[in-house]
Amino acid sequence: MSGTTTAAASRRPAGAGANRWLVLVVLCVSLLLVAVDATVLHVAVPAVTEDLRPGGIALLWIVDVYPLVCASLLILFGTLGDRVGRRRILLLGYGLFGVASALAAFAGSAEVLIVARALLGVGGAMIMPATLSILRQVFPDRRERAMAIGVWSAVAAVGAAVGPLLGGFLLEHFWWGSVFLVNIPLMLVSLPVGRLLLPESKGDGTGPWDVAGALMAAAGLFAAVLGVKRLGGGEPVADASTVVPLVAGAALLAWFVRRQRRRAHPLVDLGMFRRPAFSTSVGCIVLAMLALVGLELIAAQYLQLVLGLSPLQTGLRLLPLTFAAMAAGLAGARMLRRFGPRRMVCSGFCLTAGAVVLLTAMGRTDNCALLLTGFVVLGFGLETTLFGAYESMLSEAPPDQAGGAAAIGETSYQLGAGIGIALLGTVMNAAYAPGLAHVPGVPAQASSAAGHSLGEAYQIAAQLGGPAGAALRSAAAGAFVHGLHVTLLVSAGLLLVGAVMALRLPRVMQCEAAPVPAPRDAAVESRVSV
């Protein structure tokens, strides 16, 4: 009987084998679960409200606690993965995500559901930066890494779109807990497969891990994101519950930065921000999300309240945006090699700004061709921008700082989205409310209340009835369309600022040489006969 000893295979560096593409599949499944869970609950809110009877504040926490906790812990777990092992953190995230999903599915009260959603946020924060940092290690060649990031980003786009559609399907056939229960079988498969396939990697591990700095960053981000979310929810800027979190978050983050600069072994190497490609990429991610996430919410309101589409029809109408984003992600590697980071990101911003300006032609009647064209160009341009920015940021970071760099990118994404909702929501309200100040035949008090939102205006119009109700409804729809146009123009301006910022990125894609495999040890791999 003869055999071949393969001890040398265990000494190969991560990514040296052909199974790195299987690793990419496992990482994409992880990302898909996290992305779906961020949006799947939105359609289940009415059913949760009817069953658990949460108060207004409790309902807000049910919806918001997942992204809030996830955003605040990204840096903590990203840097911890650099220290103790990225695969270890990812597998722990899998386990926690599965347990929290079961707890959420069978929650008997609003309080239990809030705790379960918070634990899901912790699991998501463990999974998200780990997927990108492992990807950075598994694909040392930048050309292949760009292709892998394209697939990764396309999966993220799919997850965000599939969440509401999957939630709607499950709610038509099962109870609301099924939107969480679907995670469990996938996690039961991902845990053993991930343990078998994923390579372990970590940073150099010099110096102690800054526990106090990690907690400081988490607390600061939690407070900052909470304040931004309250602004986005329409809370007054001067309200103490908005100002205190914003000030506390800013102070803690400033303290965190000062602490990192003074430490010999910082939690996050802030020297990365001195590299133009890294800092510019992070800024482009923030600006892209700041300009566009708020528009998604406003577009959904426009489709449902102005055009009268159902939630399912709204989701289907937005699908071309997702398909275009998938196409851009899959073609991103080839475009990056051909055009380089500077032209790719700059062109993506300009293309997206053009789509946003095109959508200012939307009116009070449905124009399917206009919306289809606008959403396709918007999705392609946005994904082109984000792909180029993420790839440049991750490639610029040192391999031993991959977890921290991925966490910074994901945190920038979350902060940009939160600030965008607050900023564009404020612009929308400022442009919408004056249109309802004086509506003929409508009492001043009713007009003032209708200026809060289009949904509230429609409710008041239904209560008034008759010519006054019809006049208020028509005026509210017209004011909303006007506010939408103003918001689109502001968003286009922000995107053009991003295009100018992208000019600081490298002109060409600089590919480092792929690592040369070590010569095989003849003694180790010799055939032996027994």
UniProtKB/TrEMBL annotation:
The keyword tRNA processing does not apply. It is a multi-pass membrane protein. Pfam families: MFS_1. InterPro entries: MFS (IPR011701), MFS_dom (IPR020846), MFS_trans_sf (IPR036259). Keywords: Antibiotic resistance, Cell membrane, Membrane, Transmembrane, Transmembrane helix, Transport. Its main location: membrane. The chain crosses the membrane at residues 21-45, 57-77, 89-108, 114-135, 147-167, 173-197, 209-228, 240-257, 278-303, 315-333, 345-363, 369-390, 411-432, 479-503. It comes from the Bacteria. GO terms for cellular component: plasma membrane. It is found in: Cell membrane. GO terms for molecular function: transmembrane transporter activity. This is Transporter.
